[in-house]
Amino acid sequence: MLSVEIDSFSYTDKTILKDIYFTLKPGEHLSVIGESGCGKSTLLHLIYGLLHLDNGSIYYNDEKLLGPTKTLIPGEPFMKLVAQEFNIMPFTTVSENLGSHLTGLNEKKDAERIDELLEVVEMEPFKGTLVKNLSGGQKQRVALAKALANKPEILLLDEPFSNIDTFRKNKLQRKIFGYLKRNNISCITATHDSEEALAFSTEILMLNKGQVEMTGTPEFIYNNVETAYQAGFFGEANLLPKHLFNESASSEKTVVFPHQLRVSSQPTNFQIRVEKSYFKGDHYLIEGVWNNQIVYFKHNSSIAFGAVVNLSYHL
Ligand SMILES: Nc1ncnc2c1ncn2[C@@H]1O[C@H](COP(=O)(O)OP(=O)(O)OP(=O)(O)O)[C@@H](O)[C@H]1O
Q1: End-to-end distance of the chain based on CA atoms, in angstroms?
Q2: What is the pLDDT of residue 62?
Q3: Cα–ligand 1 centroid distance for 41 (angstroms)
Q4: Which residues, in sequence order, are CB contacts of 40 under 8 Å at separation 6+?
Q5: In the predicted model, what is the mean pLDDT of residues 131-154?
Q6: What is the DSSP letter of 132?
Q7: Ligand 1 neighbourhood includes 266 CB (under 6 angstroms)
Q8: What angle do CA 271, 276, 281 make, to 5 degrees?
Q9: At 56, is the pLDDT very low, low, confident or very high (cuts 50, 70, 90)?
Q10: Which of 111, 150, 249, 315 is 20 to 30 A from 279 via CA?
Q11: What per-residue string of b and e applies to 25-57 under the rule 16 or more CB within 10 Å gives b?
Q12: What pLDDT score does 209 carry?
């Protein structure tokens, strides 16, 4: 089990991370989300041992990890990090890149393992291609395969699918996260992709300016968003006064997702003027204005500019 206890961390005089405490059991998958610059990569680099942690400790199975000042080569043998700038050798082939991480003692076994890894990241056709001739997304997939080569116990992934097209991304995510689960490999991903965090992780840690904003299962996080910052990860959420939806006279605001608002055939006290309709494939996202505030809701067809519609709230 990995235990992370970060009291505080700073590069210079500004505190970057503060009071981050969590544990990760074998096979668990933690997604770290938060706006750009909130400290996600820094957290992964501290855990991996690239940065020295002055105030706090990181343990793996009760053993304290020493960090870069006490180890010759930063990093731990049981842990692999796929950083945003991936560490792959440009002038060797994809196959040689993966092979460089295997034992070299049994040629046949190594060749089988390379084929297995290439299958996981769907790179079989590029086995003999020089890495320098690959696209950004293909390089990212080689970096992922390379990190898996030696069957790590913990995998740290910094924006693992950021260069991969949507067409391939979903399938690749299912394959890679499925592989990790089957092999009981724990995983921490830093990601901006809320769909990935909701669909694949066992736990989400949301950071805000280096501190824990929210933590819990994907279901808990999604169902308990209260602020615009928290809701901002899950699409075009609205922050609206509660009195629009219930009897209370409260001016207190609540988060309302676009799918929770519907056009009502009856008059309501929530009328908006439509500005734009965005086609989203299986629905339209309608942008309207209420009380000088932009409001988003889902609808099954586009709505003409300037139309005034009544909205009602559905849980
Ligand atoms: N080597 C460094 N020296 C000083 N400050 C740094 C260094 N690396 C990062 N920072 C600062 O630490 C803060 C956190 O950076 P970090 O890269 O961890 O954020 P992030 O959440 O991963 O961002 P992104 O989502 O954009 O990748 C930022 O304010 C950044 O400017």
Answers
A1: 38
A2: 83
A3: 7
A4: 32, 33, 34, 158, 190, 191, 207
A5: 90
A6: G
A7: no
A8: 110
A9: very high
A10: 315
A11: eeebbbbbbbeeebbbbbbbbbbbbbbebeebe
A12: 95
Instruction: Specify the residue with its C-alpha closest to ligand 1, atom 27.
Output: 36
Question: What percent of the chain is predicted at pLDDT more than 90?
Answer: 61
Q: How far apart (Å, rounded) are the C-alpha atoms in residues 260 and 178?
A: 32
Helix%, strand%, coil% for the chain, nearest 5: 30, 30, 40
The predicted-structure confidence for 167-191, as pLDDT tens digits, reads as follows: 788 888 999 999 999 999 999 999 9
Letter for the amino acid at 40? K
> Taken in order 29, 280, 245, 232, is the CA torsion positive or negative?
positive
Q: In whole angstroms, give the CA distance from residue 110 to residue 115.
A: 9
240 contacts: CB under 8 Å, gap ≥ 6: 253, 254, 256, 290, 293, 295
CB atoms within 10 A of CB 111: 13
Q: Cα–Cα distance between 256 and 231 in angstroms, integer?
A: 9
**The tokens of 222 are what?**
């999604």
Please, are residues 69 and 89 in contact by the beta-carbon 8 Å criterion? no
- 45 C-beta closer than 6 A to ligand 1: no
Residue whose C-alpha is closest to residue 207's, from 36, 27, 63: 36
Residue nearest to atom 26 of ligand 1 (CA): 36
Three-state DSSP class for 205? strand
Q: Which residue has the higher pLDDT, 13 or 7?
A: 7
Under the banding of pLDDT at 50, 70 and 90, the label for residue 301 is: very high
197: closest CA among 48, 85, 40?
40
Q: What are the φ and ψ backbone dihedral angles of 289, each rounded to 5 degrees?
A: -125, 130
Tokens 């043998």 correspond to what residue? 77
- Report the amino acid identity of residue 262: R
Of residues 219 and 54, more confidence is placed in 219
The alpha carbon of 86 and the centre of ligand 1 are apart by a number of angstroms equal to 17
